[in-house]
Amino acid sequence: MDKLLADGNEAIAYAALDAQVNYVSHYPGSPVNRVVDVIACASRPRLPIINHALNEHIAALSAMGASVSGARSILVMKHVGLNIAADPLNYAGPLKIKGGLVIVVGTDPGARTSTGEEDVHWYAPQFNFPLLEPTSVQSIYDAVKKAFTISESIRLPVLVFISGRLAYQANLLKREAQSDRKKPLFKFNKNPADLINVGNSAVSNHQQHVLRLEKFARFNYGVQQKYNPKATLGVITRAASYALVCEVINDLALGSQVHLLNIEQTYPLNVESIFQFCHAKNDVIIIEDQDGFLETMIKRDLFGRVDCQIRGKTVFPPWGELRYQQVLVFFTELFDLAIADKAIAVDRTAPPRPGTFCEGCPHRSSFFAIDQALKEADGIIGGDIGCSSLPPHRTDWLLCMNAGVGMSQGIAQISPQQKLVSTGGEGSLFHGGLVALLSAVENEVNMVHILFDNRAVAMTGHQASPTTSGRVDVMSLLLSIGVKQVFKVNAFAATEVEKAINDAHRLTGVKVVWVTGDCALQVNAESARRMRERTLTIEPSLCGDCQLCYESLQCPAINRINIASRQLTIDMDACRRCGACVHICPNDAIKVSDPLYKPKVKTEVANV
After folding, report:
1. In the predicted model, what is the mean pLDDT of the chain?
2. Pairing state between β 73-78 and 49-52
3. Which of 171, 191, 217 is the last residue of a domain?
4. For position 137, what pLDDT does the model report?
5. Domain boundaries, position 560
6. C-alpha R_g of the chain
7. Residue 172 gets which letter from DSSP?
């Protein structure tokens, strides 16, 4: 087939399609959030079944179920999602899967798309799964495709880790044409010996699992050697560090003085090939992102066998994303080179450009209301992950999904005198927050939880959430688990949200303020109508110069006439016509022209 331009997400998707994958399971997360979208939009006779799981634990189990039934399956998630999937994946090895199971994990050195840059390589030896780490868009395609056959040959899931740098990189990709196989008949066969892993059978199956992995260790997938094999300096790379190191070596013309080994099969290692590489070297430098997983494995496996010095994290830091500048400085100092262009030695790290809520985002007016409700009490806001966690970071902590409702329970129990609200989106609610709320009910915690429902998993690409379709009766669901009272309010009516929070705090037990308002980037008939028919203007004669809409609401569509002026205007090219500013204006200075506009929405309250 001819080459096409593709990025890392597309390479993963095309590889799965060309391997004729039968089942796709995922929980959306950057940097691999587009993989399933590409698969779903493909035009081919038989598309795989797609499971849009509500968390990674469920996604892993469903993929395991499809695989033991004979289906080629792919499981896609980001690095922190692997923590959620870890429990079932610890049991996936002994199952002796039938259809190839490939687990694609997007990693995030430098925390570009995550709250943390946790290094999840250590799960590979814990799970005892093969781990492949491609180095380019083409090798992503090749690795994912090859992983299915590896998985089926040793009957183990195969991990493929893709860093953010590679997931978003675009390059020419050559796909391999394949004739369609006959549609297989999948069937689950009862096999207690493999599938019931308790007691002695668990030990026996674990033994067989490890022996199957040792068989794979004799493979030598994706090994690349470059430059001068006779050089006494060896450099070992993996994943995105390979291209960086090659670029520096080429720029400094060091090809004759360096012998480079790149390893794509990073677990289990082919020890003999690495031993042969290190045997004649005086010094070996391992250049990799994050904790130093490859360095640890190599030092462990070659302990006492080689005389050369092996270094890694004593040279490069175990945090952040590896940069060209760091590698350049290392080689120039090692070889005592002068850089002709001194400007190249300047650290050109770009200043941070934090994101923020879009114009018309329901979270903007919701947080304004929360601030107003808690202002006098210097209250606590428990934070969750999602669009609600964007700057200016109104919450008091940002950790992981459901950390808002989870941590708040401990604080509410240990320090009941403090006014507190926990927050979380509807995506988090169905990810695990529902169980957290149920736990709060069972423990009789006195707390208020604010449920942001914008009807989309917006942070990672606007995937559908259970409230998108309207099939879930959220009010009845919350009441059924024992929530004392549910206040349903309009996210864009800040005064209504503030009142609901204050009313909820006067009650005991677990209360939920269900704040509803569609994501500004999810176009529907009503939002399209507003853009056509509604205009908003600020009447200067009525404006009291309170600056609430500009300084507190911080809507980007509201601007000052000029830098020196405090007079405000609304930029209708940027405005999404949500009406949030109208609700917070104490002087009714913001006028709405729209025959269908209803300025006040009555709060809907339900209780047990």
Report:
1. 91
2. unpaired
3. 217
4. 97
5. 525-593
6. 28
7. E
436: CB partners within 8 A, 6+ apart: 402, 405, 406, 409
The angle subtended at Cα 510 by Cα 505 and Cα 511, nearest 5°, is: 55
Q: Mean of the pLDDT values across residues 205-227?
A: 89
Instruction: Look at residue 53 and give its three-state secondary structure.
Output: coil
Domain count, the chain: 4
**CATH no. for residue 190?**
3.40.50.970
Task: Report pLDDT for 291.
Answer: 93
**Would you say residue 71 lies in a domain?**
yes
Average pLDDT score over residue span 130-138: 97
Close Cβ partners of 28 (under 8 Å, ≥ 6 residues apart): 36, 457, 460, 461, 463
DSSP β-bridge partners for residue 261: 225, 236
Claim to verify: residue 182 and residue 329 sit in the same structural domain: no
Instruction: Please count the other Cβ atoms lying within 10 Å of the Cβ belonging to residue 199.
Output: 8
* Residue 182 shares a structural domain with residue 283: no
Q: Are 445 and 422 in contact (CB under 8 A)?
A: no
Residues 6+ apart with CB under 8 A from 55: 27, 84, 430, 431, 432
Residue 574, CA atoms < 13 Å, CB-side half-sphere: 12
Assess whether 239 and 213 both reside in one domain.
Answer: no
Q: What share of the chain is helix, strand, coil (3-state, %, to 5)?
A: 40, 20, 45
Residue 597 is encoded by which pair of tokens? 């506009």
Inform me whether the pLDDT recorded for 608 exceeds 60: no
Which residues are CB-neighbours of 58 under 8 A, at least 6 positions away? Answer: none
In 304-431, DSSP assigns E strands to: 309-311, 380-382, 420-425
pLDDT the model gives residue 116: 83
CA distance 273 to 295: 15
**Position 440: which residue type?**
A
Amino acid at 332: T
Give the separation between CA 272 and CA 276, rounded to whole angstroms. 6
Mean pLDDT score, 497-518: 96
Provide the 10 A C-beta neighbour count for residue 330.
Answer: 17
- Mark out the alpha helices in 376-424 (DSSP H runs): 403-414
pLDDT digits (tens, 9 = 90+) for 157-174: 999 999 999 999 999 999
pLDDT band with cut points at 50, 70 and 90 for residue 181: low
Residue 336 lies in a domain: yes
Tokens at residue 229, please?
């094999």
Q: What is the pLDDT of residue 235?
A: 97
Neighbours of 87 (CB within 10 A): 12
- Dihedral sign for Cα 363, 59, 404, 500, please: positive
> Cα–Cα–Cα angle for 555, 556, 557, nearest 5°?
90
382 and 334 in a common domain: no
Q: How far apart are CA 434 and CA 436, in angstroms?
A: 5
Q: Which tens digits make up the pLDDT trace of 76-88?
A: 999 999 999 999 9
Looking at the DSSP bridge assignments, the partners of residue 103 are 75, 159
CA–CA separation, 369 vs 454, rounded Å? Answer: 16
Q: CA–CA separation, 294 vs 263, rounded Å?
A: 9
357, 390 Cβ separation under 8 angstroms: yes
The sign of the torsion formed by the CA atoms of 401, 405, 407, 408 equals positive
Max CA pair span of the chain: 84
Nearest in space to 13 (alpha carbons), one of 141, 167, 171, 131:
141
> Which one of 39-43, 169-173, 547-551 scores highest in mean pLDDT?
169-173
Pairing of strands 309-311, 224-227: unpaired
- Provide the pLDDT for residue 354: 74
